[in-house]
Amino acid sequence: MFSLIQSASVYGVDGKGISVEVDISSGLPQINIVGLPDPAVRESVERVRAALKNSGFTFPMDRITVNLAPADLRKEGTSFDLAIAAGILTASGQINDQPFKNTLLLGELSLNGNVRPVVGVLAMLEQAKKLGYKRVLLPIDNVKEAIWISEMELFALSHLNELDLHKKKQNGWEHIRVSQTNDRSTLLNRSFILPDKEDEEGDYGDVIGQHQAKRAMLIAAAGNHNILLSGPPGTGKTMMIRRLPGILPHLNEQEALEVTKIYSVAGKLLESSVGLMTRPPFRAPHHTISAGGLIGGGSIPKPGEVTLAHRGLLFLDELPEFPRQVLEVLRQPLEDRIVTISRSRAVFQFPASIMLAASFNPCPCGYYGHEYGDKFCTCSAANIHRYRSKISGPLLDRIDLQLEVPRPISLNQESSGPSLSSAHMRTLVLEAKAFQKARHAEYGFKELKSLTGAALRKAVNIRPDAANLLENAFEALGISMRAYDRMLKLARTIADLESSEYVETRHIAESIQYRGIETQPAP
Predict the structure, then answer these.
(1) How would you write 97-166 as a 3-class SS string?
(2) Which terminal Cβ of the chain has fewer Cβ within 10 Å, N or C?
(3) Cα-flanking dihedrals φ and ψ of residue 193, to 5°?
(4) What pLDDT, on a 0 to 100 scale, did the predictor assign at position 234?
(5) Residue ranges of the alpha helices (H) in 444-497?
(6) CA gap 91, 85 in Å, rounded
(7) pLDDT one-digit tens code per residue, 466-484
């Protein structure tokens, strides 16, 4: 007796269709799962056995073989439980197999037969749609994220005994329609953010002084530029970066689907969430993180902090405290905007279109070059050099905005001059983004970040005198060609904030001053 049930698994950040083949033959009572299952899949034997018995079904006392195809692909997770149970029931003739034709089954089983939610539903349904499946049977707790995959019939289960339509005297499972849950456009407006993000956002209007740093934040947000702040302790470096998400534009629906899918795969969606993550993600890992934790890893690689910050902000506070080998893994993601992890059986690629924000003190004690009052640097030149050498030249070369944040001269908000609020800064960012979008459409490219060489020079629309100034800076400062291109893109963003069609000399001059840390002489 043979049965075939379709299921799916997560492979990296993408779904993978898996065929669950069940064969029941005479022999000693045992069940074997083949097809490179991991321990969680092998343990499904006991979950399925108990769930069937406690749901009023009979577990066959025969030889049962379960094959997860393709057999050369390692399987992990608990999403196969429901499909394995359905395969055993149909192969043993306890339920009809017709309702499962062209239907994908997903779900974990508890011992009492309850169907538990699984991670990565968005990724698995997206792949199922590409494979031509039209129907999905899934846990009721996964419906909120599943409805975002259009043109799929969703059927939700809360208990295993709902598989038996004959016993329930029904012609089919209840179809979950979008209108029963909420309209898609309504759900898009009811976006959610992670709990820690609500507490991190503040208003730039509360920041005393630091006008240059706030200007740099505005430029970074308008052009998705990487930014690095240096300065003594307590000058507001961390505070200003944590306010940066508040001035970033919301994600569009396609971008929100990308980000929500990543968090679904990582198992980080809120249980009470309704809608998509339309706010750019903000990730701030501790400096004790490993290289695998930062870019992803594992036998079947899982997303790291870089991928979790996709379409958002990755904040590395106290940058030199991170191990150098951890920081060096950021080079390729910052350049290519993808993370590539190679394994013996496969190569995985994770999206990593991030904005990197980092901060650090100028030396281990924090006061080198910023002595005031009874605060003075106690570090030797060797200690300072060792501390700063953790930030390599190639990594620094990939950071567009580099500036020092000095101690405020006065605590009087009025004497510090008018301060831009987050709301005003966000309005300026949105206007610059709209101007960029119109320019990109006119010149026939999607985004400036992807351009290099002659295409970049044509797209920025630079004045001859401004080009001469940048060339002089290239020769005088000894910057690399990568830094040259990044300064050009930075100047284009500054011009976009002014709605200027051309990159002028003043835009180039401002972009040059933001390479201050890179061009500083060593102590």
Answers:
(1) CHHHCCEEECCEECCCCEEECCCCHHHHHHHHHHHCCCEEEEEHHHHHHHCCCCCCEEEEECEHHHHCHH
(2) N
(3) -130, 165
(4) 86
(5) 453-460, 464-477, 481-497
(6) 10
(7) 999 999 999 988 888 999 9
